[in-house]
Amino acid sequence: MLTDPSFWLVQGLNSLQLAMLLFLLSVGLTVIFGLMNFVNLAHGSLYALGALIGYSIAEALGSVWWAYALAPVAVAAVGAVLYITLIERLRSAGPLPQVLVTFGLIFVLMDAQRYLWGTDALGVTGNVPFSGTIHIGVEPYPAYRLFIIAVGFAVFGGLYLLLNRTRLGAEVRAGVDDAETAAALGVNVERTFFLVFLLGCALAGLAGAVAMPAFSAEAGMGVGILVPTLVVVVIGGLGSLSGAFVGSLVIGATLTFGTALFPDFAGVAMYAALIAVLLFRPHGLLPARG
Amino acid sequence: MTFRHLLAAALLAVLLVWHSQSEYYGFELLAEVAVFAILAMSLDLLAGYGGMVSLGHAALFGLGAYLYSWLGGPMVGLTAPMAMLGATLGTGAVALAVGAVAVRVEGIFFIMITLGFGQMGYEFFFQNKALGGDDGLYGIRRLDLSSVGIDLSDPGSFALAVILCAVVVYLLLAWVLATPFGTVLKGLHANPNRLRALGLRVHAYRAAAFAFAGAVAGFAGSISAQHTQFIAPHLLNWTTSGEVLIMLILGGLGTLVGPAVGAVVLVLLRHELSSVTDYWGAVMGGFLILVVLSRQNGLVGLTERLLHRRRG
Amino acid sequence: MMKRTVLAAAAAAMLAALPAKAADYKVGILLPFSGVYAGLGAHIENGFMLGLKDFGGELGNNTVSVVRDDTEADPGASLAKAKKMVLSDKVDVLTGIVSSAVLGALRDFVHSSKTPLVVSNAGNDDATGERCSPYITRVSFSNSSITRVMGPWMAKQGIKTAYLMAPDYAAGHQMMDAFRATFEAAGGKIVGEAYPPLQGTKDYGPYISQAKASGAQALMTFFAGGAAISFVKQYKEFGAAKDLSLYGAGFLTSAAYVHVQGEAADGIIASLHYVPTIDTPENKRFQDGYKAAYEGKLGSEFAVAGYDAAHVIVKAIAAAGGDKAKFKDELNKVSFNGPRGPLRIDPATHNVIQNMYIFRNEFADGKVTQKVLATIEGVQDPVNGCKM
Asked: A218, B121, C101, C151: which could form a disulfide with A121 (CB 3.0–4.6 Å)?
């Protein structure tokens, strides 16, 4: 098995696909984390919301492309409501109130999903782009997984440009480094926070919409994905775009090759990686602040 | 502090009156309340006084339950008191090892690393076939006090015994907080750098507090296993830790009696709400959000402020 | 407390034939209405309520009232709620239970309090084996009975090698172990196995790649709910169908969600105690009633278990009249033809004895239907260490 190049190729792609899905989820979380010192445990619930809204949009408009376009907008709108009603008040409150309020939000959002979409698992049946199989050498491989990988790289590239080439990016970087000084220098920190929060929510929604055709959508699906996402964020380093990217690759590979090579330890491998990183690099692999 | 001791005495009186008016189901609720009161008070020592918010505390609670069942069951075969002692000390030892690693980071990183350790424990018991895996362990014995004329298989006596344990734990924790160790613990929370500058071994103090709180959580676990006489990995999951944190915030963080009040409120809410609506999770979540946003330090903080205003 | 008197006394014409003494029977429904199993809870409750409606006429002048509570997937909370129903609501019989861990938590309590429990899902073999109780009656299935029938059948189709895959929890292992035993006894060989985590990312790509690389002829699986949808879709995407045919415990393509799997379910062969396409008057009555009552939805095997649980309870009440002690015994003497075919309770274990259907999913015109390939009649578990 280990000498078979197609094993490494296929599992490598599998690991990359999972990594990109985790990246879409964790990048929003990490930038919110790094910029605002805010921990949002309900981020996974926004992912579930993206999948469910995406499902409804795809069914109503007959194309999953609409779901990719509109689900992030809808989730960002939910994010705006959350920001104005809750998040803004908790900004300076310290980690415990933030953890508790967003923990409470998990239950509220889960029940709202259950109320609106019911308890059965849902999935779009027709008209999914890239639903076929592509042959890589002799190995057939799902085209949709390659699409997820492409979306992940595109978002990474787009965010890299946004952070390094735009005014908003400069403000975000200044805010992550030192919010007080940035404010003193005339950066509208509040507005930057708000925009970044919406962007993070939109990316969670996008992740949900992109995952939905390959997986399924059901109320409460965000709870299972939350812990791996948090692990990625902490391993990568809070607030760091490249950190989220590298952390996603690490966890994607740990989960994929862990299950293939050491099935008995797959369950604990991710947590072991988390603890090891925190022990030797307490602020993650690529922390945003030196 | 005296006012809070008075509150604690009042809470005890309420529990005892409740006990005297209860039938079978009331006893079951009371025992559950008392178990969670012990667990919540131990987390208050860590999070409320020591500033170490742990999302892995339920894992130590569950570990205590498993240790008791393993030590006292056919696999090892210790007597029940020895198994309780073993569960308490064993959990404390594991907590010391985990704490030695975890206390090196602070704030949100501490929350995450305790979450990581806790979920590792959850996975371990979930997959451990010898300990029942996800189907759990059953047939767990209760402590036998028939030699002194107490029948713990009777729900009323059992509930009373657990309440007594909660009282003992309250007194123990209050005493610890009054010792120099407690003073240092509170100081570490308020101003770690000053204490570090004074040459204090900050990590050692924090690890010791983590171990001590862990041992108390393990003790609570050993009682919980005897109460339900069945345990499953669910006990260790991080969402259980989240629920205990809710108890802290409902009752009042860093007040010791507050978390016990929070345990009463939360256990009752959980059981009563779910028979009223299937959407009880949303109601509880919304309630929690309102409590946090009110910026009162829970019910105890609110009471103190109201009394203070009247005096002022 | 949510109390609903569901049914009042029935037709006066029947009165003469019935014993004069009558009683109100209080039923406690314990199902997950929130959390990961909420979907199954809803199906079972729907089926149960439909069953009470369809068979209520047999109650004579006895009445049934219902209390219900949410077990989540939490054994500790479930035990507290069962105690509340028995000790404070004074129910005569409990029914429901989806998760085997919840059943394990309740077992000793219902046994020592002598409260009858009619299980309508949880499939742990031990519950009607080593840990059986005179007070526990199971009308759903046992894990091993579902997959046990597939071993000899697949071997007979000329399949020599199989790869096993199921979530890493007790039910997954029991289903796979039962298949392994009968498949190997019939001359088959297991060439590999994998147990992905129960919760988590639901990304089965790495496992499917492993199974394909094993060179096995067949992939035998057990997945349910959202995991089953994800798994079946991903299996199709990987183009695995060509050289690795997919078999499973029938929950893989449950009536509850096979329409979501759609074309991806085409060709999957599975075994289960119920198939929606069974052509009998009992099943037609059930499916027509279910569609009419619940927004045109198809009744799943979970709903059937709830429906039959109601039927068992009604029949036992009808036989016992107002004699509640007799009612407890009558629960295990019930037999009838339900939507899934003939059903009776094994006196040795109190597990259900029923048919198993091996069926193929066929996708045509945008719909999936099930074609029954074989019916194994009267499937009965060995005693498995049960002492009543």
From this structure: A218
A59-62's contacts with Cβ under 8 Å and 24+ in sequence apart are A59/A124, A62/A127
Q: Does the interface ipTM go beyond 0.90?
A: no
- Residues of chain A in contact with residue B281, where contact means CB-CB under 8 angstroms, are 107-108, 110-111
Q: Predicted confidence band at A216 (pLDDT cuts at 50, 70, 90)? A: confident
Cβ–Cβ under 8 Å, residues C143 and C124:
yes
Mean per-residue pLDDT of chain A: 88
A96 vs B53, B117, B126: nearest CB: B53
Q: What is the pLDDT of residue B312?
A: 54
Contact C60, C22 (CB under 8 A): yes
Bigger pLDDT: C377 vs C225: C377
A99/B111 Cβ within 8 A: yes
Alpha-carbon distances of A262 from A256, A268, A269, B121, C162, rounded to whole Å: 10, 11, 9, 18, 21
Question: pTM for the complete prediction?
Answer: 0.91
Q: Which ranges constitute the DSSP H helices of chain B?
A: 2-20, 24-43, 57-72, 80-102, 107-127, 155-178, 180-190, 192-197, 202-228, 238-251, 257-273, 280-293, 298-311
Phi, psi of C6, deg, nearest 5: -80, -45
Which of B289, B290, B297 to mutate to test binding with chain A, by most A CBs within 10 Å of its CB? B289
Q: Which two tokens stand for residue A70?
A: 């509109």
pLDDT at C225: 87
Using CB atoms, which residue from A18, A120, A133 is nearest to C257? A120
CA distances from A214 to A144, A198, C127 (A): 7, 25, 36
Q: What per-residue confidence (pLDDT) applies to C11?
A: 44
Is pLDDT of C1 > 70?
no
* Residue listed under structure tokens 């009965």: C380
| Three-class SS of A68-133 | HHHHHHHHHHHHHHHHHHHHHHHCCCCHHHHHHHHHHHHHHHHHHHHHHHCCCCECCCCCCCCCCE
CA-to-CA distance for A130 and A153, rounded, in angstroms? 17
- Residue C387 phi/psi, 5° resolution? -120, 120
Pair C163, C216: CB distance under 8 Å: yes
Positive or negative: CA dihedral A199, A56, C304, C361:
negative
For residue range C297-346, list pLDDT tens digits in order.
999 999 999 999 999 999 999 999 889 999 999 999 999 999 999 999 99
Single-letter amino acid code for the residue at A109 = L
Q: Which pLDDT value is given to residue A72?
A: 97
pLDDT by residue (tens digit) across B206-251? 999 999 999 999 999 999 999 999 999 999 999 899 999 999 999 9
Q: What is the 3-state secondary structure (H, E, C) of chain C?
A: CCEEEEECCCCHHHHHHCCCCCCEEEEEEEECCCCCCHHHHHHHHHHHHHHHHHHHHHHCCCEEEEEEEECCCCHHHHHHHHHHHHHHCCCCEEEECCCHHHHHHHHHHHHHHCCCEEECCCCCHHHHCCCCCCCEEECCCCHHHHHHCHHHHHHHCCCCEEEEECCCCHHHHHHHHHHHHHHHHCCCEEEEEECCCCCCCCCCHHHHHHHHHCCCCEEEECCCCHHHHHHHHHHHHCCHHHCCEEEEEHHHHCCCCHHHHHHHHCCCEEEECCCCCCCCHHHHHHHHHHHHHCCCCCCCHHHHHHHHHHHHHHHHHHHHCCCHHHHHHHCCCCEEEECCEEEEECCCCCEEEEEEEEEEEEEECCEEEEEEEEEEEEECCCCCCCCC
As a whole number of angstroms, the distance between CA A255 and CA A274 comes to: 12
* B–C CB contacts, 8 A cutoff, strictly below: 96
Are β-strands C352-364 and C341-345 bridged in parallel, bridged antiparallel, or unpaired? antiparallel
Determine the distance in angstroms separating the CA of C316 from the nearest CA of chain B, rounded to an integer. 27
